[in-house]
Amino acid sequence: MVFIVPEKVHLLDVSGPAHVFYEAKNTGAQLELLFVSIDESANIESSAGLYFGKLTPLNDLEVFSGDFVFVPGSENIFSITKTNKTFLNYIREWHKKGVNICSICVGAFWLAEASILNGKKSTTHWRYLDELQKRYPKTKVQKENLFVIEDNIIMSAGVSSGIDLSLYILEKLFGYELTLKISNEIVYFFRRAAGDPQLSPFLEYRNHIDSSIHRIQDYIMNNLNRKFTLNEIAEEVNMSKRNMSRRFKLNTQITIGEYIRIIKVERANYLLSKGYTLVSTALELNYKSTHQLKVLLKRYYPSAY
Fold it and tell me: Per-residue confidence of the chain (305 residues) as pLDDT tens digits?
């Protein structure tokens, strides 16, 4: 796994995916991690001011068909993609050779500038979707996808979806069981699929700063396979049931009960997409019958079920 480190790189664009594969390697997966500078300097300053050192020079890098190269976003993406012609040539050659090129967030602009997205689907951070389409009209920007796969090009929408992308790759290389183990290890329980919308329920209802409510949401997601009550949740976060319900609704705009149903249906949809039966999915989510699960699925996905 090769991680490109351009100047003013966004830290999490590199560290998020890298940590997934680091954990996999520690678990026994046969893979190597390499961090590469595309500039002459071996010390690169990130957008947060933290420096990367002892990087491998781009000219010393040798990759082959089937290898993975991650291209992250950076603070000055619009200027460096125009000036670093050498790296753009490398991207073109890697693409021709069959190297898997994975962009994270606005790293997509590197791939677009190298013209390897012409006629292909693409995505980037939601804030820059229109800009990507405007600057590179030959690409087909997908506005509701967490990540997009086109031949040997894999593009993710942002930091968290870069982790989704990495877990997707990990599953393709080493299987579901290892991937599940790694997602649990990094406390990333709900891996999303390529076609899922960028603003998924797992993100949409966590866009607040109330740490107590975040703890409630964590507790719910970590206990979907067992029955629990509102009183139990309130006790877990040391709040009264009434205050907990009020603050949860204030921060998320939905009730705790509705949140539980939404999270459960998203989990069920994922398990079914992985080949689980209705019976095993119902058991996994602590439903007494498949009828309960079917009712839930039809409520939120009426056309699919």
Answer: 999 998 889 888 898 899 999 999 988 889 999 999 987 766 788 888 888 888 989 988 999 999 999 999 888 888 888 778 889 999 999 999 999 999 999 999 999 999 999 999 999 988 899 999 999 999 999 887 777 888 899 998 877 778 888 888 888 888 877 887 787 777 664 445 555 554 456 556 765 768 888 889 888 888 888 888 899 999 988 999 999 999 999 988 999 999 999 888 888 887 887 788 889 998 889 888 898 888 888 888 776 66
DSSP string, 187-242: T---PPPTTS-SS-HHHHTT-S--HHHHHHHHHHHTTTTS---HHHHHHHTT--HH
175: CB partners within 8 A, 6+ apart: none
Nearest to 217 by CA among 199, 198, 196, 236: 236
Q: If you compute the radius of gyration of the chain from its CA atoms, what whole number of angstroms results?
A: 21
Pairing of strands 51-52, 44-45: antiparallel
For the question of whether the overall pTM of this predicted structure is more than 0.85, the answer is no
Parallel/antiparallel/unpaired status of strands 140-141 and 147-150 = unpaired
